[in-house]
Write a structure and sequence with these properties.
With about 180 residues, the chain is mostly helical. It has 6 helices and 4 strands, in the order αββααααββα. Helix 2 crosses helix 3.
Length: about 180
């Protein structure tokens, strides 16, 4: 094949693609055609069976684990790199923040039941506006938890310090449930 003739997929390379890459699978080609950034591929060498990136075929679970490992190995450098990227890409950073804010608003809207009375909605509004300084408004049962999803209702709100709220994340502990 090194004589310059074309192989069975029409490439001159001795392997499968122009640079030794395998041809894209049907699943990857479908994902590209549909405009998706991920696809469900074969398990990676570590056994993760989650999504893979179309652009690199990388396992998203492995990428997440490696990013977490890099952060814990040198958190200051990771934060410094993130700050430098944000400063160098203000438009992209604004777009990411806008997307996050919009998805959060949609999540809250979808988690707000239609049967709430106007008094209850007003009570929630006051709860948010009267939040003590240094505290966060937290949903006791997270709106988007791994095991349970709560509602955006007055009795599902509480004040937490920023450290407590950040450490709680979107986890729910049933034994910590407290009713107002």
């Amino acid at each position: 094949m090194s004589d310059g003739s074309l192989n069975r997929v029409g490439n001159r390379c001795g392997m499968h693609g122009n640079h030794g890459h395998r041809p894209k699978s049907r699943v990857v080609l479908e994902a590209i055609a549909e405009g998706r950034k991920t696809y469900q591929g074969a398990p990676c060498k570590y056994g993760h069976s989650g999504d893979r990136l179309v652009s690199t075929n990388a396992c998203r679970d492995c990428l997440r684990i490696n990013a977490r490992r890099r952060y814990h190995a040198n958190p200051q450098q990771t934060k410094k790199s993130a700050s430098a990227w944000s400063a160098a890409n203000p438009d992209k950073r604004r777009a990411i923040v806008r997307i996050y804010a919009a998805s959060r608003r949609a999540l809250i809207l979808n988690a707000t039941p239609k049967w709430l009375t106007s008094e209850q909605i007003l009570e929630m509004s006051k709860f948010w506006t009267q939040c003590p300084q240094g505290k966060h408004v937290d949903h006791i049962v997270p709106l988007k938890g791994k095991t349970v999803c709560g509602l955006h209702v007055p009795w599902n709100l509480q004040y937490l310090s920023s450290n407590e709220n950040m450490s709680k994340g979107n986890r729910y502990w049933p034994d910590n449930w407290s009713t107002p």
